[in-house]
Amino acid sequence: MAAGQRLICAGSALMDGGTGVRFSVERYGRQRPAFVIRYHGRVYAYLNECAHVPAELDLQPGEFFDHSKLYLICAIHGALYAPDSGRCLGGRCEGRGLQALPVFESEGDVYLVLENFDG
Ligand code: FES
After folding, report:
1. Distance (Å, rounded) from C-alpha 12 to C-alpha 9?
2. What is the mean pLDDT of the chain?
3. Which of 7, 17, 63, 105 is exposed most, by the fewest CB atoms within 10 A?
4. Is 53 a pocket residue for ligand 1 (Cβ < 6 Å)?
5. Is 98 in the pocket of ligand 1 (CB under 6 A)?
6. CA separation (Å) from 79 to 21, 49, 90?
7. 40 CB near ligand 1 (under 6 Å)
């Protein structure tokens, strides 16, 4: 299944609960926006698409956390998501969550695991 990996950013670019790094992935033949954040020391990545309507979560680029630094928030209508699972915790997404992307950190860098549909 996994055909390789792609460097996304240096791990030092991601502070816990801080600004995320935006990138893109190819899904089903088109580029889709995505982002990676750090939460409780681990890195997590998701498609940058709200579960409510397909809008990017961050109005200010990279600002995915709410003020508490405990939740990811869609800046448009305030839907909240769990940073470690993408699960919807409230708001207009009505139980739908973010689409997780497989990432890992190794020797100070953060990588996306390439799947069959990734470019
Ligand atoms: S667009 Fe994200 S909650 Fe409405």
Report:
1. 8
2. 93
3. 7
4. yes
5. no
6. 20, 12, 6
7. no
Question: Pairing relation of β-strands 42-47 and 30-39?
Answer: antiparallel
Domain 5-113 class, CATH top level: mainly beta
Whether the per-residue pLDDT at 2 is higher than 50: the answer is: no
pLDDT recorded at residue 95: 83
Among residues 71, 78, 27, 13, the alpha carbon closest in space to that of 52 is found at 78
**In the predicted structure, residue 1 carries a pLDDT above the cut 60:** no
pLDDT at 98 > cutoff 80: yes
- Output the six-digit token pair for 65: 């956390």
For a mutational test of ligand 1's pocket, the pick from 50, 63, 96, i.e. the residue with the most ligand atoms closer than 8 A to its C-beta, is: 50
Q: Can you tell me which atom of ligand 1 is nearest the CA of 78? A: 3
| Ligand 1 centroid – CA 48 distance (Å) | 11
